[in-house]
Model the fold of this input.
Amino acid sequence: VAGFTAPDSGDIFLGDRPIVALPPEKRGIGVVFQNYALFPHMSAQRNVAFPLRMRGIDSHEAKRLAERSLHRVGLGGLGHRLPSQLSGGQQQRVALARAIVFEPGLLLMDEPLGALDRSLREKMKTEIRRLHRELGITILYVTHDQQEALTLSDRVALINQGRIVQIGAPSDLYERPNSHFVAAFIGESTLVDGIVVARADGGLALDPGKGGPLLPGSGQVRPGQTAALVLRPEKLGIEAEPSPVGLPAIVCDIVYTGDISRFELKLAGGLCIVAKQANRQNAFSPAVGQAVRVHWAHQDALLLARQISPLSPVCQKETFHAASE
Done:
């Protein structure tokens, strides 16, 4: 897209304009790199003004536009500093100011927050969202961090082995994945393989076999099909025994993370699922080894048609599809 490499085939359009034949400097695309790519011997203001000077804009106008761009990213008054005199977050803001200073038709951001610590990443995500609203620039944002993709994007394209496997709103990919790969990659989930069966009430459930309980769900599948049931941890509820709702389970493990707790639960047949709940005052908080009941609405558990995997989700952490994947 930026023009640094040429495609083997096909074309790229920016609006209705084909750009494959254009050199990078003629495409009108701003680029923000992970490593900032600032000139160390130039001040922040001169770094930002550089693309303007390369476009033939006189020095006074370039300086004015550079200072305006620095102000937009919260660095007004720091234009005289060298990159070495700026923090990592400030250097990233300089790179962002340089990319938007000539008002590009497209802003390409390639892993822009990868070198920042968590606190700075959160601040920069807020900054990028603000600039997107204020400037109205289309942003093509490349990231391996799914949380960044879900937080920043209006549309997400998930790519596997060079092909787009699903594209849509963040909520579509999270709530309505079109494949096992998408369900496993986006967010944390427990994926259970089995055979689709009809419930007595006319709904659907998954039979995981091996003595496991029937797991209610919904989806575009038919009884008798092999399928995977997608269970999102935050959709599950945990109740104390005795309770008339849900399935019996034993708490295998608890991970406290501050705002939430993550519960690993073992069902009949050795099947393990994960539930999360907010750490609210007076919330039910079971202990490891305690017998509980776990439940979910059938519409919150998606059944995806697929071939049965040789792996089944027993109580081993490596079989869970966690966000880090």
In short: DSSP finds seven helices and 17 strands in the chain. The helical segments are 44-54, 59-72, 88-100, 118-135, 146-152, 170-175, 180-185.
